[in-house]
What does this fold into?
Amino acid sequence: MRIVRAVITVLLLSLTANAQRSVQQSVVQMLTEMAENYRQKVDDRTSMKVQINIQPTAEIWYVIVEPNRKVTVSQDSNGPAQFIFTTTESTLRKIYRGEMTALTAAAQAKSSDPTPLKLEFGPGVAFDHATRIKLFDFLQHFFNRTSPEKVLFGERHSRVVHGAHAVPLYYHPGLRSAWYMIKKGERLNGPGDVNPFPQAFIFISGEGFARIGGKTIKVKGGEAYYIPPNSEHYVWNSKKRPLVLIFLAWGDGA
It folds into this structure.
């Protein structure tokens, strides 16, 4: 009797696992659905090719965007890609489900930092204004299937970047925005961190300390601070309650 029960249990577990696998979209199904959605949003003059490498299976897919909103997913390259992303099926599935944005998966403080969604540029591609527009558009709109587009933020949707839990919100040449949560013992940025464009810390909740332009101040939710260009700026938290803020940057170079 115990043997029969054991066999039945194994069969049920196998059927459940197979059922779960069958309802999960494959990599090409996820990319194809994203492409169909992107077709409704992309500018009809846009032209680019994006390569997506899936590890560890070594799958290679190409998203080809052509004028008149033609967006296709193929394994045929027909020339080099402008942008090359390397990720795993697990990360792609999180992005597909909206659990993490592509911007969050690709975010890094330094170019050498490992990321779940690694970005490389194709041969001869310069990181100029036009390239940045295409890249930010693809990252934010190809991978986001919601309409109107929705971004979930909070600790479970974040990654630690620049020393704190981050969810990049909206990026465009001349504009950066992100949600940050600084837990006890964490510090966003560090001594010597400066940028040549204006920025702001908009504190939503919690309490902590900030160093802005040579001054150390206590900060709390309900306060916003302007950071002039080339001013040192970092924030830290020594309390149990997280310090939550919105980060903004704008102007040339942002």
